[in-house]
Write a structure and sequence with these properties.
The complex is a heterotrimer of chains A (230), B (220) and C (285). Chain A is mainly α. Chain A contains 8 helices and no strands. Chain C has 285 residues and is of the alpha/beta class. Classes of the chains: A mainly alpha (230), B mainly alpha (220), C alpha/beta (285).
């Protein structure tokens, strides 16, 4: 147990900061995921066949390939791709992507695929009547989307977004390849250095449970907030 | 590049074996816990709830590491008969995967049990069908059919999850892909090939479930 | 359509912003942090070990500003090639296979590899010559080993010279298990999941000393052949990004700088000093 104390000889403070890192990566990844969902949900519900294909390609591939492979691909291919794009814009230097961005982005891409599916589902379960009603009321297309459709989409999406959050939070355990010191990497280091894997991995599990427990509390509050009047 | 293809295909078999075994064991475990969960005994109900909470609330990698590296540390366990199983990375992986998919499966089945239209059960009762028969002949088949879409997602999640087997020395598809990279240093090409194989299996699972779903549809 | 173009452009602008930490003259050196005593991590989260200290010495001699970064062993070489960092100092032996994709400075230290078992193992009494240099041929010893290792499960870290040796066929067909880190090899050796392990001899002695587990070295020590020619700094080949480009020139210059600095550190006894501190004997070369 003295291995878990704070300070120079214990791993307590390291694990504490690793927990904050896990949380930070998960939240950033979730937001990046929303950004991807913002691009790909319209593609998935679009009637244009090509756009539709692109949207489906994204969600099918990302959800059908192990997270570990997606992360490796992004880790090894990411900076090459960014440099390639930079070259087109005339920049020939070396661009460094830091570990946090690499980690959050690779998880974000995965999280985005799940979010896209959730938003698409939410959009499709909005009753046709709503669209027609806003048309009849003479609402402009933009206005009807932001004032009528979007709020309902959010309400319908929140329970499933909670699931996406859980997936995203747990996926952060896989990004140790990027060198980012989150819970899993820190426990791995501590387990290796102290030769006590049972203690550190069990403690890691407890840390994840704590994160799950409290984030679910927050999300459930949000859910009841958005369900008002229903 | 091309010479590594047979190796990857061989490893695909290991992956398939891992997925199918864990899924089969997981269905039994999941059904068992779903029944406890919907039953009347409070203690068993809670036990089942916490089991699924813990396994769904922590990353599978942590679960696998606790079982593989953690348990091996306990001297007492190493001298017991359990060590015959826990000594093998293969069985450690199967145990971790089974416990994990069992938790999700129990959730899927539970919600299916809870949403069965009461009318079917009442119909069965009024026909005088005994209680346990109602379970096997009415509740269970309906629950299975209702859970199919969610379960097909779980199958795909497990397929992806088995890629963690490589972290405990098993040479599954991801393990072999990583091994080839460590000798050829060509990560992107190899990962794309391995990714495509996973994608293909995902596609097969999808098609298979769609077929079963159509078979089990209500006659209209 | 214009809106989509704008969106795509702004995504790139965004990507650019977050990645704008562009190349400066800092030299980034990668180490694993899980291969004591070469490199490892302390309880306060800092990288420590022979190579970490040596890297700082070499950087001082080169007059470069350096940062030392952690990288998992299995991605070490690919990530170097993708410019995640500029140099590797991670107990990486200089081998012909690796030279196909990267280049090495001159060696700064040499290690011998050895097999290790737990006390009481049937292999403990393995009788062989003391040291084997594979470049000089050692048929008889290899034959003894082939018989001894038949049917045994041998653990090694993935992507190492030790794995290459076991899979080269020199000791017949052995049942090889590969691990992500040496720490994990040690854990499974102690747990009895593997019969025998192969790694740098110092990795086992360090583990035995710190854990108090009865790990013993058996058989000959290995060097030469598949075991390479000492440990050096891994660097990108000058030609990878074109010898005439700015990137290629920088890579080429870095190789020269490292070689010069290693020469200096060898002459003034700094490498020996650090080696004795961390290994307990002079492993410098």
């Amino acid at each position: 147990m003295e291995l878990l104390v704070f300070g120079k000889n214990g791993w307590g403070d390291e694990l504490f900061f690793a927990t904050l890192m896990t949380l930070a990566v998960a939240i950033t990844a979730m937001l990046i995921g929303f950004f991807f969902a913002l691009i790909f949900t319209p593609l998935k519900i679009s009637k244009n066949k090509i756009l539709n294909f692109i949207g489906n390609f994204y969600t099918t591939v990302i959800r059908g390939v192990p997270e570990l492979l997606v992360i490796y691909l992004f880790f090894f291919g990411g900076s090459t791709a960014v440099m390639f794009v930079a070259k087109i814009f005339g920049y020939e230097g070396y661009i460094e992507i830091n570990a946090f961005i690499t980690g959050a982005f690779s998880i974000g891409i995965i999280s985005g695929a799940y979010s896209t599916e959730v938003f698409r589902g939410a959009y499709q379960s909005i009753k046709r009547g709503q669209f027609e009603a806003s048309k009849v009321l003479g609402l402009k297309k933009n206005l009807s989307f932001f004032k009528v459709i979007l709020p309902q989409m959010l309400r319908l999406a929140i329970p499933n977004i909670t699931n996406v959050w859980q997936i995203t939070l747990k996926d952060t355990a896989l990004i140790s390849v990027t060198g980012l010191v989150e819970i899993m990497r820190q426990s791995h280091i501590a387990a290796g250095s102290t030769r006590d894997p049972l203690l550190f991995y069990s403690f890691a599990a407890v840390l994840y449970l704590i994160l799950t427990f409290f984030s679910m509390k927050v999300l459930n509050k949000l859910e009841t907030h958005y369900q008002r009047g229903h | 590049m091309i010479s590594s293809f047979p190796k990857l295909l061989n490893a695909t078999l290991v992956t398939l074996k891992l997925v199918s075994l864990s899924l089969i064991f997981g269905i039994f475990l999941g059904t068992f816990f779903a029944i406890l969960r919907t039953g009347k005994n409070k203690f068993l109900k809670n036990f089942s709830y916490y089991y699924s909470y813990v396994f769904r609330g922590t990353p599978m990698l942590v679960q696998l590491f606790i079982i593989y590296f953690g348990l091996a540390q306990i001297e007492y366990l190493r001298s017991s008969f359990l060590w015959i199983i826990l000594k093998e990375p293969y069985w450690c992986a199967i145990i971790a995967f089974t416990l994990n998919t069992g938790a999700y499966t129990s959730e899927i089945l539970r919600s299916a049990f809870e949403t069965i239209d009461k009318g079917y059960i009442e119909a069965g009762q009024s026909l005088g069908i005994p209680k346990n028969k109602i379970f096997y002949k009415i509740k269970f088949p309906i629950a299975i059919r209702q859970s199919l879409p969610a379960y097909s997602n779980e199958m795909i999640l497990m397929l992806k999850g088995t890629s963690l087997a490589s972290t405990v020395t098993l040479m599954d598809l991801t393990g072999v892909a990583k091994f080839i990279i460590s000798t050829t240093f060509k990560p992107i090409e190899i990962f794309i090939v391995a990714g495509s194989i996973y994608l293909f299996i995902t596609f097969l699972i999808h098609t298979f479930v769609k077929l079963v779903e159509r078979k089990l549809e209500y006659p209209k | 359509m214009i809106r989509i173009k704008k969106l795509i452009l702004s995504i790139f602008a965004f990507l650019f912003l977050i990645t704008s930490n562009t190349y400066a003259d800092k030299v980034r050196i990668a180490t694993e942090g899980a291969y004591p005593p070469w490199n490892s991590k302390s309880a306060d989260g800092k990288l420590i070990g022979f190579e970490v200290e040596l890297a700082n010495v070499l950087c001082g001699y080169m007059g470069h500003e350096c940062t030392i970064v952690e990288q998992d062993w299995d991605g070490m070489i690919p990530a170097l090639r993708m410019r995640k960092y500029d140099a590797i100092m991670a107990g990486m032996s200089i081998t012909d296979e690796r030279k196909k994709v990267i280049t090495f400075s001159q060696g700064y230290a040499d290690e011998v590899a050895s097999l290790a078992v737990m006390k009481g193992s049937s292999l403990e009494s393995l009788k062989t010559v003391e040291a084997v240099n594979l470049s000089k041929g050692a048929k008889k010893t290899l034959k003894t080993l082939t018989t001894a290792l038949a049917g045994k499960t041998v653990g090694v870290q993935v992507g190492t010279i030790h794995q290459n040796f076991l899979e080269s066929g020199d000791v017949g067909k052995v049942n090889v298990r590969t691990y992500k880190t040496q720490d994990e090899v040690n854990l499974d050796l102690a747990a009895g999941r593997i019969d025998v392990a192969l790694a740098a001899a110092v990795a086992f002695t360090d583990y035995a000393e710190k854990s108090g587990k009865p790990v013993v070295l058996v058989g000959p020590t290995f060097s030469g052949g598949a075991f390479g020619n000492g440990v050096g700094v891994g660097l990108r080949q000058e030609a990878q990004f074109g010898s005439s480009t700015a990137m290629g020139k920088r890579d080429g210059q870095l190789l020269k700088d490292f070689n010069k600095a290693i020469n200096k550190a060898r002459k003034d006894g700094k490498i020996s000093e650090l080696a004795i501190k961390w290994f307990g004997f002079d492993a410098s070369m």
